[in-house]
Amino acid sequence: MSHPTQAALVYPASDDFVAGAHVNAAQYASMYAASAADPVAFWAEQGKRIDWIKPYTKVKDTNFTLGEVSIKWFEDGNLNVSANCVDRHMTTRANQTAIIWEPDHPDTPAQHITYAQLLENTCRMANVLKAHGVAKGDRVVIYLPMIPEAAYAMLACARVGAIHSIVFAGFSPDALGNRINDSEAKVVITADFAPRGGRKTGLKANTDAALLHCDDRVKCLVVKHTGDQTTWVEGRDVDVKAEMAAAAPYCSYVEMNAEDPLFILYTSGSTGKPKGVVHTSGGYLVYAAMTHQMTFDYHDGDVFWCTADVGWVTGHSYIIYGPLANGATTIMFEGVPTFPDAGRFWEVCAKHKVNQFYTAPTAIRALMAQGHEWVAKHDLSSLKLLGSVGEPINPEAWNWYNTHVGKGKCPIVDTFWQTETGGHIVTPLPGAIPQKPGSATLPFFGVKPVVLDAATAALQTETVAEGVMCISDSWPGQMRTLWGDHARFEEAYFSQYPGYYFTGDGCRRDADGYYWITGRVDDVINVSGHRMGTAEVESALVAHAMVAEAAVVGYPHEIKGQGIYAYVTLMNDVEPTDDLRKDLVKWVRQEIGPIASPDLIQWAPGLPKTRSGKIMRRILRKIAENDFATLGDTSTLADPSVVDDLINNRMNRV
Ligand code: ATP
Ligand code: MG
User: Are 238 and 220 in contact (CB under 8 A)?
Assistant: First the structure.
């Protein structure tokens, strides 16, 4: 049991946890120093955690200079990612479970897929791809539910050297068609239907609609998952399961260069049009495997559950590539946290004896609003560690997670990273770095964060600092380019603060050197000359007993420059009243100060979110500004109908 230092609210891990951890405080300090002082020597050693067909002799060749940006790691090494995730475990763990598949409905039995079965299924899928002309360098779009075939498809692409691009199963035909066209994919892999939360989405029908706008030669590989009837285009549509069953059970893997692309993945689109992030093979896999092992303190035999969708980078790095490279047992969950009831996550944790559990603040807040009785019903004694990703976790949600899920004995790793970074870049290592609720704490090995003044770009050299977060040198998991648009890559990430990789996020660094992400720089609010991150105001609102979730944006205000417009979702069964509104304003005043008190509060039954659960403040800003005509790219919204509700009930500006 950890005892927080009340004044500073610091939560160290228990002595037992520290004793068993891969990395303790002293090791973190010395390894971090070594990684910063001599990245070449450090990564030359770490690169050996995966198998190389041809070992590398060059470790790092990276340049952040605008106009010449180029990032290469292990560039003369050759490997195959699929062989690293599957074949290399065959001698030691062929009969160990690689993937536990937990279906949407709890009455459907879970599947335990061993490494031997994973190899066979990946090979069969690879042979199907080859039969349809897929070869090294070709693009394959994957539009599947969270089913084992999604893992087979990813690994099969990697095996034959094809580049996959996964599109969330919740996206529209338009979003799918755009990505097929942008990546010039040869094949799209989909399913008949995607069951989720007891409902079914017609993926095949969506794919048919998308393909109307694509090249006629694009093949459509269909996984008959639910078995419901769909349309069928002879000559174009392929029954994947039938062809897998008939295909040879082995397929050799292609020797790939470390810098050959592994996948393209479009960002969530929280701030604008999604960007086609490109990750390559060698550096990405080394970094995904290392962060998976160290951040989650994963040990052989543990059962690891990352609740993300494989359509998000978190699913790529921490459901598939990191865990499988490490020979882990990883859970793939088809469903949602609230189906058939708000205890589903905890039921699954108990059922599969999950050791590490990794989810997003949005899910924690949603479950918190349902009450902790749902957690108490299930045996969570197997849990050793909890994780959070996607946005800053509000201290209120952190405390609930710690108390009710972790029972005060599980370290919580608040992992800050991006599609672009491939893996965690600022995160507690649980045995080494005491947590502070709401802080992502310290950098991972080899990552050099800096704080720059947002306006002047001046490097903040004092420990205590505030500004934008940039990274001053490359790490192996970093993205290499934007698909087909290297100029946009340089422009988006290297032009605003020359010489640095710009994350787009604001941050604060405290006296212990801990980083606190304050939100997107685009979202910063300027009230009467005071710059404010959205995270702090939102956390104050969420700390109120009746508030489940809050999103805050600025809107033009005659006197203050910008006023604060808050969208507030109340806890279940709480009545929205004017008194409560006044109460909330008073509350924020007390928590932060008068400068942060909301000018307008709108009750929001739902907030516009990306499929990965991030609030799209750019849309909320438009609503607050009374500018509905140009909401921008909304193709990545999880539920577009919430926007109409918010527009209809918007508050009048003063
Ligand atoms: P787009 O770049 O298209 O706007 P996006 O940034 O939402 O989309 P992702 O790459 O999925 O797409 O999200 C990365 C962002 O998520 C980070 O830049 C940061 O704003 C936020 N984030 C992720 N993890 C954390 C965390 N632990 N703490 C704070 N913020 C986080
Ligand atoms: Mg982003």
Answer: yes
